[in-house]
Prior knowledge:
The chain is mostly helical. 77% of the residues lie in helices and 0% in strands. It is globular and about 50 Å long. Belongs to the MreD family.
Amino acid sequence: MSERAGSFGLSLLRAFGPAVIAVVLIIIMHLPYGDASGGVPLPHMALIVVYYWSIHRPDLLPIGLVAAIGFFLDMLSGGPPGLNMLVLMIAQIVLSNQQALFVRQSFAVGWLGFVPVTFLAMLLSWIIASLYYGDNLSAMPVIAQGLVTLAAYPLFGWIFGWFDKMMKADF
C-alpha cells in the first residue's frame, strides 16, 4: 500500500512539479520583505519557471497550467487583470516554437536565450500596464525587475535542472 501511495505521489510530483514550484516561488516573491516600500525589485519567478520548463520539459508545463500560473500571479500582484497570464502564455507559445534551438545547448546559451524573452516580456508588461492605467508609466521598475530576473536565472536554472534530474531518477 505505501509503495503504491509513494508511486502515486511521485507521479503527481512529476506531472505538476513545475506548476507547484511556480506557485511556491510566486508566493515567496509576494511575502513582505524589509520595509515593504516596494523599493527592492524581485525577479519575475513565473517567467523563469515558464522559460526553463518550456525549453527542457514542455510536457510538464502545458499552456493551461501556464495560464493558471499567470492568473494566480495576477490575483496576487494587483496589477492589470490578465497581464501576467497573457505575457506568460505568449512566452510559452514563442518558446514552444523555438525549443529546438535551446534544448541540448550549454547553460550559457540557454541563459543568453533568456535575455530577449525577458526583454520582450518586460516591454509587453510595461506597454499593457501603461495602456491599462492610461498613463506613460516609468519604465525603471520594469527594467530593474528585468535585470534582477536575468541575474536570478542561473541560480534557479541550476535548481530546476537538479529537480528535473531527481524526478527522472525516481528519487
